[in-house]
Amino acid sequence: MSAWEVVIGLEIHTQLATNSKIFSGSSTAYGAEPNTQAGLLDLGYPGVLPVLNEEVVRMACKFGLAVNASISPRSVFARKNYFYPDLPKGYQISQYELPIVVGGEMVIADAEGNPKTIRITRAHLEEDAGKSIHEGLDASSGIDLNRAGTPLLEIVSEPDMRSAKEAVAYMRKIHSIVRYLEISDGNMQEGSFRCDANVSVRLRGQKEYGTRSELKNLNSFRFVEKAINYEIERQIQVIEDGGKVVQETRLYDSDRNETRSMRSKEEANDYRYFPDPDLLPVEIDATYIEAIRKSLPELPTAKCSRLVAQYAIKTGDAELLAVSRAAADYFEAAANATSAPAQTVANWVTGDLSALLHRDGVDIADSKVSADTLAGLLDRIVDETISGKIAKEVFEAMWAGEGKADEVIESRGLKQITDSSAIDAIVDRVIAANPGQVEQFRAGKEKLLGFFIGLVMKETQGKANPAQVNEAIKRRLAQS
Amino acid sequence: MAGATDALHVLTLTELTKGMAGGEFSARELTETLLSRISEHDSLNAFITITADDALAAADSADAARANGNAGPLGGLPIVHKDLFCTAGVRTTCGSRILENFVSPYDATVVARMADAGAVTLGKTNMDEFAMGSSNETSYFGSVKNPWDPGKSPGGSSGGSAASVAARLVPAATGTDTGGSIRQPAALTGTTGLKPTYGRVSRYGMVAFASSLDQAGVITRSAEDAALLLGVMAGFDERDSTSVDRPVPDYRASIDAPLKGKRIGIVRQHFDAGLNTDCAARVKEALAALEGQGASLVEVDLPNLDLSVPTYYVVAPAECSSNMSRFDGVRFGHRAENPKDLLDLYCRSRGEGFGAEVKRRIMTGTYVLSAGYYDAYYLKAQKVRQLISQDFKAAFEKVDVIAGPTAPTPAFALGEKVDDPITMYLNDIYTIGANLAGLPGISIPCGFADDLPVGLQLIGPHFAEESVLHCAHQYQLISDWHRRCPEAFA
Fold this sequence. Notes:
The complex is a heterodimer.
Chain A: E1 4-15, H1 54-66, E2 70-71, E3 74-75, E4 77-81, E5 91-95, E6 101-102, E7 105-109, E8 115-127, E9 131-133, E10 142-144, E11 151-157, H2 164-180, E12 193-203, E13 213-218, H3 221-240, E14 248-253, E15 258-264, E16 274-275, E17 282-283, H4 286-295, H5 300-311, H6 315-322, H7 325-337, H8 342-360, H9 371-382, H10 388-399, H11 405-412, H12 420-433, H13 435-442, H14 448-459, H15 466-478
Parallel strand pairs in A: 13-14
Antiparallel strand pairs in A: 1-11, 1-12, 2-6, 3-17, 4-5, 4-16, 6-8, 7-8, 8-11, 9-10, 12-13, 14-15
Helix pairs in contact in A: 2-3, 5-6, 5-7, 6-7, 6-8, 7-8, 7-9, 9-10, 12-14, 12-15, 14-15
Chain B: H1 13-21, H2 27-40, E1 47-50, H3 52-67, E2 78-82, H4 109-116, E3 120-125, H5 159-166, E4 173-176, H6 183-189, E5 192-195, E6 216-220, H7 223-233, E7 263-267, H8 277-292, E8 296-300, H9 308-323, H10 342-353, H11 356-369, H12 375-395, E9 401-405, H13 421-426, H14 432-437, E10 441-449, E11 452-459, H15 465-478
Parallel strand pairs in B: 2-3, 7-8, 7-9
Antiparallel strand pairs in B: 1-3, 4-6, 5-6, 5-10, 9-11, 10-11
């Protein structure tokens, strides 16, 4: 065990999936031409005033309830003041002293697979900034304010994580929750889900935290892990070389897999937060909270337990399925539509289906093989029309668009051979052609059973019913 | 009442409406008369922009509407807007170099509501830069002169609005009041200036100085006219979260009742040292007159009155420092030439664009919000603000309105206080409390001191504009100070 203990806290920025911005009516759709989705408010024009989009309050409450947090009866928007060209008003409207969500927790699995609770400090609402564009403009910078005013929920954890793996596990859990709640699309490529990591190291047994650095804008699970691990090694190296870690903000460079200093504590902005006088405090009563609580969907942990109880599948599979609502829904739809055992369905969804989804970069909700179609395929295994092995071929063909299971089986002639006289005839041919192996088998080398099965299956292109083949070979070899 | 069109400029809105309704003159004739007066008296420097063509077109529309029986509540009535109300297609400078050529793409709610009611906008009035000032001397476009004495300040920040109404260039003007910017210039120019309750009138399109204090109002020649305009301006606006959703009464309906039974609070602290003795005498005479009309005078205390100026000069600059940040030379307004980098762009655009008083307040505001000073200044000021509000609340348990001086002295000389910000700030000692507490207040003329007008201020509880207007109107029924016109503008 290393002498060093790692301490990590995350600030996750989740873009809320509203149609319009947090304080203006402009659209939040991604990828539009620069500045076509920036109205007067987003441009910070003189005289315009922010008006809160009520939907973001509802979404923040959903999140708070889902992680067992308190919803503040009164939260306040504050101005965070700093100058930057992509920040049109010269301040960002955020929440500071009185955030909407306080407390909360998320259970992850630690390195030994035991449950571990990560405490959530707070979650607050804020507006995103625009972005500066440097490419393609010689000697000047452009500003795209389409993103300015996009609603964000910033979820701040306590420094409870002790490894990069735990940080990733926590981030994945939060990612899963916000998608379950349908409050964010969680799209990391588009920046809808990103995080900053506060990382420090200390000697094991030491009470005080070490000096931390803040790693900015990590927008993939892989980068979070790599950046944190790089940073841990860097900090340990600094200390072991007799130096001191300085409090600073560092940027992760994924091309070089390293972190670089952006600014030190001394250079940090004094944001001069104060309550935004243009916005009233957000007041939330118990009735409102209860209505939202009633509307919450089944959450991952509850869903996982139910899948195990209701379908008798392995806990590990249930956990995989429960990561996303779409995967669990797919599984349930397929399991309910087939006579195959639910565990078989789970194996297929987490195995073959998952592999093809991953290979083609397709979301399960857009799967090329629907849950019903998969169920139809599994039924053909149950009624012994095809073997499990042939089923994989059929599945690939269904994925490629060749139709449903029966169509593929028909067109490709994959129907299982179950006619015992036909199987017996092939078995007889195989036995007659391999007298040497027959001799050895009869002398006790029973492993050769597989050799004969393989030959029969080869002869039938895998279509013979394996159980019947097995039985016929044993029976024939027993006769002398 | 004057009937000849050559005396149109002395009429109140109420009288002008009667005249147009009776066919004595048209909105076009009225507009032409006033436009020529405006250009005749341009030495007052009351205007930053005059919109003659737009005004004549609007007047013609108003005349056509009236002919069709569709005259709005302000049909054909001339109005001018303080130059921090955004007006689509017409520049909105806020009296600042940084917005010297800024043209807003939209109308402020106040501007739109008045235009929809048929008002004819003649132009945009001069003002202290971003409404920061009490003398109109901080305007990039130069000081406005007081029509009663061109060597004197008209007060500020709505100095152009007050001067243009006092000089009979227009019957009414909009203003904004953050610490007295409507009431103090009204007092110094002998006009009627109404600051409504915070939240009564939308701030949308009103360029912000200190958002928790700013409120739009009007400067007119009578309380009755102020009541008419308030009825049009007031009301909830979904684009301003701090505007209050409550019904707008007919403010003119209740002003005719006798004053009998009205309890008027006299604030002990108002008559402490610092108030000019002649002003004190005029105010006391006015109070006696109100008592003579049946009101009862009751002594009340505002024990924290002396804290209102220091409190204001923490809260207002704090909000100002943040509100001014959007003027950065990036998207609109003045931009420094050939900046060598981003910091240079910011520093020079703002350095060149803002005047000294705005810079002073940005610096003060940045300081009081800074880490390490926030608790001692901003937070403490917020607490004192609460105390001041509570003082008013306690007083209004005993009285219906509070009456007293609007300003400690009559108009002061241009240049007299401009180099002494503290003395200048103390000019707002009687008006600031209503802003800190969000209360409605009005200043009405109550006589003269050294041939300069003196203002009587009336302050009411939240949303008691009716009560304030009622007292003011009743006083104006028995006095003619509000009808006095500076000789040079008769």
